[in-house]
Specification:
This protein is 71% helix and 0% strand. With 191 residues, the protein is an all-alpha fold. The chain has one domain.
Amino acid sequence: MAEVPSGEVTVLLQNWAKGDARALDDLIPLVHQELQALAHRHLRSERADHTLQSTALVNEAYLRLVGSQPIDLRCRSHFIAIASRVMRQILVAHARGRLADKRDGGEQVTFDVLLDAPIKDDEELLALDEALEDLGRIDSRQANIVEMKFFGGLSAPEISEILGLSRATVDRDWAIARLWLHQHIRQSAAP
């Protein structure tokens, strides 16, 4: 499939933000491959026996986007970042549901190398989500960068463009956020 010009995507995003519900319907086929790749990245970092498939994740994300108020999106990368956040929320809700079905009485979660290894199970995903929420209360910019980079698979230049920051600031915030998350998760998992 040929690459769709970013300008066309941007126009559709702007029309959707202005309330044109059909614009989102026109947009999805244009970015479907990117959404599929995004879903694959999310699921690749999940446990091996995950019951959600990438197509189901894309479809659920689409339904949530359609059901939400139009969002002021600036460009294709910003849309992908928002779609990534929605996919993360879906996976976290799925993990919470699975854990509610099978409480084990307090298994501790540890990460050997935060964000450098796939998430092994629902407990690790929930621990990361909780830590990311805590980071967001302290430094929302750093939390956004982690979400865009880790969950969305966006590059530092793409994040820099979306957030209007220098590449050096994005790299610095990413490094600080990783360290903070690693420490926070280790402290939370300590007996």
